[in-house]
Fold this protein.
Amino acid sequence: MRRRDAADWVNTLVRADVRATAAYHVADARGMVKLDAMENPFALPADLQSLLGERVATAALNRYPDPQATALSASIRSTFGIDPRWGILLGNGSDEIIQMLIAGVSGPGCCVLAPAPSFVMFRLISQWLNVRFEEVALRSDFQLDVPAMREAIRLHRPRLIFLACPNNPTGNLFDEASLRAVLEAADALVVIDEAYLAFASRDHTALLDEYPNLLIMRTLSKLGLAALRLGYLIGDPRWIAEFDKIRLPYNIGTLNQVAAAVALEHFAVLDAQTRLIVSERARVFVRLQADARLHCWQSEANFLLVRPHAASARAVHAGMARRGVLVKCLDGGHPLLANCLRLTIGAPAENDAMLAALDAELASQS
Ligand SMILES: *Cc1c(COP(=O)(O)O)cnc(C)c1O
């Protein structure tokens, strides 16, 4: 009998839907102005880098990490003023928290629901966990379509609903009345993803008191700490205790715990960077709003969504890349994002380079 090679084994044993899936693609940004992934553009100041080096140097690499990340959890609580009544769960990025949430509620007939367009990980992680995912189109002004959400809730009976607020990639907050309408209609756990809280005019912790089916998810990724992969979930400790049971032991490595603690001890530095990004967003928005060749939406996040009127977003994206500026082209995804580009707000000089590259491409294409 012929020996089976790895391809035979893979074809027999790996799920067909997994084999049919394309790997998650991250564009190569070497040497470019990188404005495609909502990163904070600023490095830590030199004195903080040295302090980080000292703390990391003495970390006990031979030991497993503190499984509860006790010091870091306390530091997150105090930095972000989290009410002691709420429990907190740390994840290796919000991505891992999304995975724990879905894994924790999934079972036969389970369905996860989110508006669309929204954060792609809600759909991808559902698929990876073999859980049905349903989406409800946002209105053309990117607000929640409450009647359609109610109908989808009635029809699909989701157990888990994700609402990114501010939403990615549209940049807006959903209005509070429609969030409440969804919370009230849902016979489900509702998770508000506040990844862009630092750039927004509103948070949702006050709703935790009113809605016991609500949890709030956040991340340090957009605050200048994307490399650490650190997200957290807050809400009623009875919810948190259950999801904590399916958290992989030691999911937050010691180096990440140490580095995050150093950064949060000096949170004023990150906060000042964030405020500069917000003021840059206002400056770039004024420029883009005055540009008759495109539409630019208002944003509560660290990016702006734009739609060229005449030029092709794909061609503009490729042309900007040739000019050394990497942004995100959203054309071909959701119909509401047809011909749209997402521009992450970077440092002032990066934003100038981005505006110049965009201007040159719009000029050359019309
Ligand atoms: C960027 C982003 C996150 C962050 O994910 P991490 O895994 O914490 O880096 C979460 N939610 C939304 C909507 C985002 O845009």
